[in-house]
Design brief:
- The protein has 171 residues and is an alpha/beta fold.
- The chain has a single domain, classed as HAD superfamily/HAD-like (Rossmann fold, 3-Layer(aba) Sandwich), CATH 3.40.50.
- The chain is 44% helix and 14% strand.
- It contains seven helices and six strands, in the order αβαβαβαβαβαβα.
- α3 links the parallel β2 and β3.
- Strands 1-6-5-2-3-4 form a six-stranded parallel β-sheet.
- The radius of gyration is 15 Å and the shape is globular.
């Protein structure tokens, strides 16, 4: 790696905004700034980790997003059957096997939504997947606190370097 590569990596790990949960994001304010598309991670962002169906909060988030004039799209690394069932219940389009932190899933979402990347916001609970994919795709990235403390072991392991990054950069 060249010296400047570290800076690029660092910038890609820093979200544009941090909120406690998706429902606390000021959608109307950002709609007035020209944003119109909300890309949502599934696990621990709009639902509990590995949930098989949406709960009331999931539906509340979609209502809030639509009321503000945004178009929602699920962008998840979850397998197709689970992503499809979840998105169908919520009545929203989805990208499964998104491959985050690769930006490919985000680019697919931009394409199926017929969106301009300058009008898209990605919401997710993980720096090394959701935020990194959004930043690599060139869209706004919003980090949310995990929906639930119960997480699969390998996600809990990633929380340690996330904690270090959050403390270094103060978010």
């Amino acid at each position: 790696m060249k010296g400047g590569d570290y800076l690029i990596l660092s910038k890609n790990l820093i979200p544009d905004r941090v909120v406690q949960k998706v429902s606390e994001f000021p959608f109307q304010e950002w709609k007035e700034k020209g944003y119109a598309f909300a890309f949502l991670d599934l696990d621990n962002t709009i639902s509990k980790d590995r949930a098989t169906e949406p709960d009331e909060y999931s539906f509340e988030v979609i209502r809030l997003i639509r009321t503000a004039g945004f178009q929602p799209c699920l962008v998840s690394n979850a397998k197709s059957s689970r992503s499809a069932a979840f998105a169908t219940s919520l009545g929203i389009p989805f990208i499964d096997y998104a491959g985050k932190p690769s930006p490919k899933g985000v680019f697919r979402a931009i394409q199926i939504m017929n969106a301009n990347k300058e009008r898209c916001i990605m919401f997710g609970d993980q720096i090394f997947t959701d935020i990194l994919a959004a930043k690599r795709a060139g869209i706004m990235a919003v980090l949310v606190e995990p929906y639930d403390k119960k997480e699969i072991f390998y996600v809990r392991l990633k929380r340690i370097p996330e904690w270090i990054i959050r403390n270094i950069y103060g978010f």
